[in-house]
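Milestone M4 deliverable, item 7.
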Amino acid sequence: MIVLNKVGDANAGQVESARKIIRSLNADAKIVETNYSHVQADRILDTGLFDFQKAHEHPMWAKELYGFADHVPETEEYGVSSEVYRARAPFDPAKIVDLLNGEISGVIRAKGHFWVATRPEWVIEFSLAGALSTIKPLGHWWAHVPIERWPSEGSGRAYLEEKWAEPWGDRRQEIVFIGADFDWSTLKQRLDVCLIADAGLETIEVLPDLPDPLPKWQVAGG
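Output delivered:
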């Protein structure tokens, strides 16, 4: 439950923008619009609306990124659009860090994972919420893990078979961008420019040595 206060002090366009920002950050929340914080207590207390498991497992970015069958795109519901960027080739680390840490006009929320040519072992997470963004390691791609440690059955094996594609295995770029009135075509072109897609670049051994602005990472205890 989100209280949107001082709506009387804003014009219609500002109120609509606020609604879109809220929907971009939490698509399922109920919004109460008011002035002077005048809200009946029974509208916001003991509503029983919050479900921790649902909030944890199915945020809007996950619905968009992984395509839940029952999810209605926010473009249809609230005028908030979402796009998923997918690619297999590695990113140039300096170029992608510069893009993700810079201004991405119109994007309010973004989340996903990617990989860079200088660190082919690492799954890297990008998260953006409003003005705050983080880039951090999540772990290793299965393609980096010795084959004897791969799952042999069950959901783990199914994941490997679904996500695997030569020559990079399960390494991939997969980031969802959510916002209002953002230029997806231009953003996609900017992301494409960050890819290293040279002809003949087909194995980890021939990845180029490039400037890498990311901090040094290591496995805990390593």
